[in-house]
Each structure stands twice: as structure tokens, then as C-alpha cells.
Amino acid sequence: MEKVTETSAIEIISLAELNEQELKVMKAAKEISEKAYAPYSNFQVGAAVLLENGEILQSSNQENVSFPAGVCAEQLVLGYAGANFPDQAVKILAVAARRRGEKIWAQVSPCGICRQNINEVELRFRSAIRMLFLRPDGQVYRVDGIQHLMPLKFDDLIS
Known about the structure:
This protein is of the alpha+beta class. It is built from three helices and six strands. The two termini are 22 Å apart.
């Protein structure tokens, strides 16, 4: 038997420790979460990305009564970026969420499908994405690259 140990580098930092670009992207994620279409779960998620050209795009989750047909905020904003800015790498992805009517932000990180989408964008541009996830205590998880969230990621159909 062989045992493999993978380690992840995930920082926990305050909002005050975010640089100017990171703060703008997190603000955009928080703002767009208010526009989520989440009538079934009441869990409003906002995601925003900073492209290498400096443009910030944002999206929120969009639910459907047929639950698998809904779309996560992260998947939606990455898809929009890829379709409308196909030559612009994503530099930063920020995610914020809360339950409708609550003041406190919820604990959130991308689901498995969204993590695979992040992986695909990193592969496409051969560049790690800095990810920021707002926490209920107002601090932020900061992660540089999907390998820290998904160490055994799927990215090869040949081997």
C-alpha cells in the first residue's frame, strides 16, 4: 500500500487585507448576490471575476423548479466570461452568499461542478485563478489555484 498526502494552501484573511482589485471583485460578488433568483432554496449566491483586461463580470445563482436545471453563480459567470471574452484569462474569482433576509453572510465554496469549471478555465489559459470566499465571520478564504480545493482534479481524457 502506498499512502499519498496532499496539502492545500488556504489563507484566512480579513477584508482589510485584500488588495484593491480583490476588494472590488468581492464587493461585486456581494452586490450581485442580492439579485439571485433563488425562490426555492432562498440561498443567494453571487460570483464575480476579474479578467486580465481589468473588466469585472458578475453573476448570481439562477434556480429552477426542476432543481438540477438551475445554474450556480460561479458556473454562470465563468461561462459568460468564456463566451464573451474568450481571449481574457480570469485572474480572480470571488464568491459570497447568504440566506434571504439574513444579515450574516453564509459559509460558501464552489460545488464540485463549479470546481471542475474553474479547473477547465485554468487549463484553458494555463493560469491559476485566485479565489476568494467570504465567510460568516467577515473574513475571507483566499486560495491560489483549483489544485488546493481539488487535488485529484480531472483534466485528462487520454491517460
